[in-house]
Please model this.
Amino acid sequence: MSQTVSPAISQSADRRVADVELCQVSKSFGEDTAVNTIDLTIQEGEFFSILGPSGCGKTTTLRLIAGFEQPTTGKIIIQGQEMSRTPAHRRSVNTVFQSYALFNHMTVKDNIAFGLRIKGMGRSPMQQRVADALRLVKMEAFSNRYPAQLSGGQKQRVALARALVNRPAVMLLDEPLGALDLKLRKEMQVELSNLHQQLGITFVMVTHDQEEALSLSDRIAVMNDGNIEQIGSPKEIYDHPTTPFVADFIGDTNLLKGVVAFADHHLLKIQTPEGTTVLAQPSANMPADLKTAVVSVRPEKIHLSQEPPPDEGNCYSGYVKHVMYLGTHLHCVVQLQTGECLTVMQPSRTGLSWASTTPIYASWLPTDCLALAA
Amino acid sequence: MSFLGGLSLPKTWQGWLTIVLFGFMYGPIMVLGIYSFNDSRRYTSVWQGFSLRWYESLFQDARIFRALQDTLFVAIVAVAISSVLGTLMAIGLCKYYFPGKGIYRGASYLPLIIPDISIAVATLVFLASMAIPLSIWTIVAAHMVFCLAYIAVVVSSRLGSLDPNLEEAALDLGATPTQALIKVLLPQLMPAIVAGCLLAFVLSIDDLLISSFTAGGGANPLPLEIFSRIRNGVKPDMNALSVLLILASGMIAALAEYLRYKSSTLDR
Model:
């Protein structure tokens, strides 16, 4: 199955084609809707992440692509062929499970050879492929061990090798690094990225770790409550979130909600209930006749000073309520006179006084914050 | 505090209690074992010297061997059929969701707590009302009732500790559902299946009550044979037989426990 090259790919050598397409796919379990009519196009060779909090439907989406679940409505197309009702064992995708799901009664070598053996591959090409896969994940020395004799990171490598030895069209990774400790996770992130570049296979990864998604992915889909909130490159998602949820979930941000007092193409003036007036640039997808909006300001975009800055942007007086020292940065909570609290990141070398009685000015440019549809 | 070697006696009342309780439990069995080597013509509490004569007379007793044959036949057939059905039942109950599943699960494990006498009487009444003649096969059928439940319980507990994604992983790698069952799920369950079978096997060869109600057609399992002989006075050859049965059951139970232990260390 995986050896067959679909005509769509061989015809277009120069143009990237869709490897996985989800059209209007939804999935319900009884009364609960896990995935709510989503559209998704994943390009060939892409490292695509589905990011969201737990229970947002991201794992169900992955399981729909793998074939462990059947969509309630909609179509799933893999390499140009509709696969909505095709069972998992006839799909040219392979999954790396969060729990690894290694076969404990088989050696590492036999675990990796399982898929090839099922397909009836001959002995010597199979041994070659298994050896290649072992080398790729740097586990040559462990080929005759049993999974119970391996550490978590080593099991992870075996799980990767067991999937990629089949040369699938798409690799599905369900929270692949979720069970590893922080240091090992960082190492495996680099290795995953290297593997992806070496193999050129499409990777679809599910994660709740935004940092992991940002550092590894070509594109990210942010999911919330069964819906896709935004799809874009890590930079687009971080710099130009289109919904308050995305702005809040990806990185830290301050959200100020208010009524639109004035709007044109470049600038919005928003009045918060506390009486603060904020100037912000509208997000790309913002409807023109908006009544209420949410302004998102990243903590690192806010400047603190003891004198009001000369440029006319957003400038508010207040005082520093709380400071945390984070090595390279100071994490401050600033209480504005109007009542709102802002989280501010400052380089730790600024020579400002942080006594809570000292009045301070928090300021940022309208182009450094984004107004989003509430 | 090694009072086993007689070096020192326990210094606490808990230690004494332990000794008394162990004596209470295993004293009769030890007496039975010791008197099986007593060199006396008939059963007596007087020790008359060491002898293997009762073991010799036991091994020359053709009726005992026929009874042993019946017992082993019943146990092996009942356990063999129950192993397949019990495993499938455990897998089905673990994997699928259907209305009434809780009731089904409870009903399948009920034979574990229903008194043997109820199973025995119920089976006999049922067989009589259906006009099914009693034979060795009716014993097999009655034994399957509890064998099935024991095997299903042991396999279920193993299934519960397995990674739920194992079968999906096999399907994902191209195995058909049947291949996934045979190549992945069954090998992982095998220690539990064997342990459950050994447990059921021991219970089956040990059973007197259900067999005595359902035996017919000349079938006469070992516990029935022993019971009928004891009624006409105890001869030390029955002591010898009991010792051999205890040893055999103990070894089987130990093997079952070892397999369970080994399978649980496999997953660490």
